[in-house]
Design brief:
Rossmann fold, alpha/beta, about 15% strand, 7 strands, single chain
């Protein structure tokens, strides 16, 4: 079954070089979607694009940094030029910052770095892509948040706070554009075994996994399939919402 029966359909994936972004880009490419793979690490983005093209898909790789406003607009201009328009965008850009710290131990420079990518970067992306979608009266914008944004994770103040802010941003934007044909949603994964998670101390991963009723991590394939549906035409009556991908940890 494909959610992308009408072609062409172009989706931008920011953070496509690794983890959930890479899995989503490759899955979308396999569905016949034209995928623009954006990442600060251009060689990583190009590797994903080559994988998609190697399976007879259409893909473009571009360098982009959500902390640099002009970088995103320049990249999206290029996507428009190559694919004609942008139907969907998946923003997977995110960092955890330093973890296993009590609140009073958090370094404000580290907090600011996490904020610049996780929350401000999401606003930069939204401002860049929404006018392009509004022009056609259609669009699917998805920001990848985290279960930490709903419940807070001990020792992860910067990450939890910025992901909670991202969820609030999505709620607001969803209402702003509810009548336009453009939907704006978030996804809140629990622990997915990605390179980002692998960098965390094992004690942090254990702490998070023990809170999951299914008692396991999510898979990249599960994340990719859910993302594909959210940015497809099939997801047409949901906006401003944060989808659960937490094995039952959060059901609200």
């Amino acid at each position: 079954m494909s959610y992308f029966e009408t072609k062409p359909y172009a989706v931008v994936v920011i953070g496509a070089g690794s983890g959930i972004g890479r899995a989503a880009a490759e899955f979308l490419g396999a569905q016949g979607v034209s995928v623009a793979c954006l990442d600060r690490d251009l060689p990583a983005a190009e590797d994903v694009a080559q994988q998609i093209r190697g399976r007879d898909g259409e893909a473009l790789a571009l360098a982009a940094d959500v902390t640099v406003d002009a970088s995103i607009n320049t990249a999206l201009d290029r996507v428009d030029a190559v694919f004609g328009r942008i139907h969907g965008l998946v923003n997977c850009a995110g960092i955890t910052g330093r973890t296993n710290l009590k609140g009073h131990e958090v370094d404000l420079a580290d907090f600011d770095a996490v904020y610049q990518i996780n929350l401000r970067g999401a606003m930069v992306v939204s401002k860049a892509v929404l006018p392009r979608m509004l022009k056609y009266g259609y669009g699917r914008l998805l920001h990848v948040a985290s279960i930490a944004g709903k419940e807070g994770n001990a020792g992860m103040a910067a990450y939890s706070a910025t992901k909670a802010g991202l969820i609030g941003l999505v709620k607001s934007l969803g209402k702003d554009y509810a009548e336009t044909g453009v939907t704006i949603n978030a996804l809140a994964p629990a622990v997915i075994r990605t390179p980002l998670v692998e960098e965390l101390p094992e004690t942090t991963v254990t702490y998070m996994t023990e809170k999951i009723p299914m008692r396991r991590c999510g898979t990249l394939e599960e994340a990719a399939q859910m993302i594909a549906w959210i940015v497809s035409p099939a997801c047409s009556f949901t906006t401003g919402f944060t989808f659960d991908l937490s094995g039952g940890r959060a059901t609200y």
